[in-house]
Amino acid sequence: MRRRFRGVKLPALAKNKPAPVSGSPLGKMLSERGARIAEFKKRKTRLQQLRVLPELVQKYVSDEWLERRRLKSGKIVVEKEKTHDEALENRLWCLLYHLGAIDLNEGRRFQIEVISSGEAVKLQVDVYGRIDDVVVIAECKSCTKKQKIPLQKDIGEIASLQKPIANAIRKHYGPERKLKIIWLMATNNIIWAEPDKAGAERHNIQIMQDRDLRYFEEIAKNVGPAARYQFLAEFLSDQIIGALSDYHVPAIRTKLGGTRAYFFVVPPSRLLPVAFVNHRGLRDPEGAPSYQRVLKRARLKEIGKYLDAGGFFPNCITVNFQHAPRFDQMSSIEERQIAFGELYLPDRFKSVWVIDGQHRLYGFTEACDAAKHALPVLAFEKLPRTQEAELFTTVNGKQQRVAPGLLDELVGELRWESPDFMERNSAIAARALDLMAAKTGGPFEDRIKTADLSESDTASLTVSEIKKGIIASRLLGNQVKGVISPGAFTRATPKDTVDALYDGLNAYFTLIERANQERWEKGRVGYLCSNIGIQGHVRLIQSLSDFLKSETAQEPHDLDAEDLIEQLKPFLEPVLEFIADATDDEFAKKFKTPFGSGGPPRYFGQLCLLVQRNYAKFNPPGLQQTLAQQDTETQEKGDALVKDLVKRVHTHVIETLKQAYGPKDYWDKGIPTSEIKVDAYRKKVEDKDQDLPIETYLDVIHHKKIVENPANWDLFKESMSIRLPDDKHGQQKYLKWIERLNEVRRIAAHPSDNRTYKDEDIDFLDLINEQLADRGV
């Protein structure tokens, strides 16, 4: 159970007064802590469970329930996964619970009684919760698979009911409560159309999509109830918090780097409600660059303990006021550009952006008596977002607190105009990928892993890896001895190049995604939407663009990006067909590549072979070397597997015989025929320069004969009987694999014959390796 929130008292926007219950227009709510905990326990699990009588179990099983266990009472526990729509409602409800909401709705049939056209009407609300003086009214919409669905009707219904619902809420809490309402549409697997987004904005309906929900779940898990301020800031941006108005502190005003700034000391509780952290996990394309990582609970707890032990922070946290504050000057030192006076702190949600020191600020929420502490602050006034990020980079660049990869990406985002060719292209690539990650319904939505959120198979793409592929592919040009040649998406200005790269990649990977959406959504385990796969396709785009130029004399960089991809589609058809039609095994066989720098070239080589099925003239520079390298790697892998398997089989056979017959008698009793013994002795005599044990001279076929002998079979039937895919069912012994291993072994044993491993040879060796490992051999 989550411990009760302690430490600095979260400044309520108004006191959490008990809600009136008699004659209330609102449905049954959970205002008591114990009731909320009980509801949370039911909602947090993805499974629903029932205890049923044994004679009713079959009825439930036929309705897709699973039988789990029998209780002492005789009843049987059955369970079934909750539906996707219920799961979405539960996730949002649990989020509000973690944020410290009260008056949460009970169950899924919560209703609000409103007056419509003079009559009392009851309306069902999916999720209802109150956080201080803010009420959240949420409508949840979910689909089993990601798709576009029209939402105009839902938006219109919410808009038409806003006033009567607001009236009902005011009636419940009393007219003296100045409540704010967040009208929220939470969606899962729904691609929002731009007109629907515009309609929601027009009616003040906030949108929470899959990525947003995951972000808030993550920060709530790490920060606890104090995360409410990040949530409220996002959906009530720039709205006034009346309880915080006219709060002022003594301050020094000055200029730093040409920007007006203020030094002051403030209780953390006063800064938290108006603070906002520009996390990379909640990336707004218009708010780039975003630079902060999500808070870590362990670090907050350490800070809380430090404060409780009498510690304090002598250094300032750094923030940025979004609006010029009121400053009543009392005196000044003009030659030093310093003024002393009273500073009126901002009183609006999301009005103070934290540049550096987020853990120190939120760390006070973990202290037992944070009220006695004061927080020193350096506040800039209306610092541009890019300068915020530059300052963050400067402050953290020489410290180990921030992951170097995060700083590298951030520096890249800030270097669009760099005179350095590689640095500029790195920035352009990073920005285009950020835009793709944020595009609703785009192929990279929810596919790019951020530093903030947990990695998964489906969200495993990384900006740093794909950026490498874009640079290596020459899509943004190439520089040789100071001479720059344009790439397919190079344009006149950095901004135009970002737009072209974004449009081109989006158009191309939309084709790839739509060829087989199920495979795409598997992420890295599908070998399509993976770092290596994306890099392989990025290389293919530039090679196909070069091929288009040779066939049509068109300069790719002179074409509109989307038009370029449209002209590449005919060349891409064999690839799209294979993606659409290949079985999972066929696809994995072709595109399952090793990790590391060799993976993308191998993937690219296989894509090129597909294109060559229809366009034999397509032969990008370096392709033959890439394919030759793949052949070399395949040969080396085959040789290594053969050597290892033969050694393991030999060791297993001899050790098993020794255990069964003893180390002295194993040769006489375990070797079934004199023919095998004579053959081994002959080889030993011929090998006169070596003094090796006699069993060293047994070969692979000898092992098969030893294993299959009736006197030995019981010793080996569990470990050595391996059925190959084309073996008939029902055989007593499956040992044909040993004969095939002997055949494949000859490729490694006779390299002068120029024999090479085929795909089916490697597949066979992988299968035997796996099967023997499972048997402990």
Task: Describe it.
- The longest helix has 39 residues, at 623-661.
- The strands form 6 sheets. Strands 14-18-15-19-13-12-17-16 form an 8-stranded mixed sheet. The protein has a 4-stranded mixed sheet with strand order 8-9-10-11, sandwiched between helices.
- Helix content is 46%, strand content 16%.
- A hairpin with a 4-residue loop joins strand 16 (327-333) and strand 17 (338-344).
- The protein starts with 28 loop residues before the first strand and ends with a helix.
- The protein folds into 4 domains: 29-46 and 82-234, 3-Layer(aba) Sandwich (Trna Endonuclease, Chain: A, domain 1), CATH 3.40.1350; 237-407, no CATH class; 415-621, no CATH class; 633-774, no CATH class.
- The chain contains 27 helices and 21 strands.
- The chain is α+β, with helices and mostly antiparallel strands and 777 residues long.
- Residues 1-22, 280-291, 398-402 and 404-409 have low confidence and may be disordered.
Write a concise synopsis of the structure shown.
Helix content is 46%, strand content 16%.
**Rg computed from alpha carbons, rounded to a whole number of angstroms:** 34 Å
State the share of residues found in helices, binned by percent.
40-55%
General shape = globular
Terminal CA distance reads: 46 Å
- Total DSSP E strands: 21
Mean pLDDT: 84
| Domains, number | 4
What percent strand? 15-25%
Indicate the structural class. alpha+beta
